[in-house]
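User: Please check token order:
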Amino acid sequence: MVTRPTPARGQWTAADVRGLGVITDVVTAGSVLDIGPTKTRELVRAGRFPVPVIRHGERYVVPVRGLLDLLGVSEGAVSG
């Protein structure tokens, strides 16, 4: 398995976000949006995270499509 380096908080490109797959964890989603881990968890617990969050058992996941929509990235966009 090849591991790519994770972009720094707030330095994600559309291609990086798409590369996450269908869902991601809330801390990674927060990083995409330039929100730190503590604030991300606080927003999720308060139901105020800016994209939909799904509780999956004991953890929360974020659909990547919601991140792309919030960032204004269309499905066909190819730019980084």
Summary: The chain has a mean pLDDT of 89. The CA atoms of residues 4 and 16 lie 10 Å apart. The chain has one domain: 14-70.
